[in-house]
Design goal:
Layout: H1 10-19, H2 25-34, E1 36-40, E2 56-57, E3 63-67, H3 71-77, E4 84-88, H4 89-92, E5 100-104, E6 112-114, H5 116-126, E7 134-136, H6 143-153, E8 159-168, E9 177-184, H7 190-204, E10 211-215, H8 223-231, E11 236-237
Parallel strand pairs: 3-5, 9-10
Antiparallel strand pairs: 1-4, 2-3, 5-6, 7-8, 8-9, 8-11
Amino acid sequence: MTGEPDAANALEVAIAEVLEDGGDAQRVLSLLWTSAVLISKAEDGDDPDALNLTTIEDEEGKLYLPVYTSPERLAEALPEGADYVAIRLSDLADGWPEGVSVAVNPGTERGFVAELPEVRLAAEASGAAEAEILVGEPADEPSGALADLADVLRSEPGVRRAFRAQVLDPRVSFEPQLAIGLELEPGADERDLFQRVLARSGEQVEFDRPVAFIPVREDGDEPIAGYMRERDEPFYVAAGDDESAT
């Protein structure tokens, strides 16, 4: 990837290009609006599932919401670790507090500050804010990689079923990617299990295209997961489950 061999996604590539004086700053803002970013989540003893976001304050009293463009950037800034949630800024816009700016990757060489209205305007000007996500069957089934991934999942008892779909999100990239959806057993630790599966699949499975892992929840309204639940057949089903894999 241009000038940034460890860039984790399209947003980080665009940031690297701008830092090299050869990129489009408006494209960075547009991607920032539509891409999932990681935001530190403050603990709430009354409601552990509540989305309580932590702001930081500079010497002049200005408030910022720190966001990170990938787990790598989060670990770079907060090596001690932190609880976080992955979410799009566009999903937070309606309740955005007045006077709070966005601090992207604070504490790293890829850091910068943006104002949410400017981020929204850049996305609207590019058409990304209204772009439609396309989900369907993979044009070229990665059968070998899926079989290897199924072998990994067999030793992860918390995974009930796994799905796959081809996703084209023009807000982020014009190249399709493979989405892997994991439906977990009730009570499974989603964050811990996803981290293990991601680490093991990175070592044991070789995909020939970009891959994103997403949770498939019965009560979720995410469109990709909804497609998987309603129209896809799982490529992996845990032993003893009532469903059968294809």
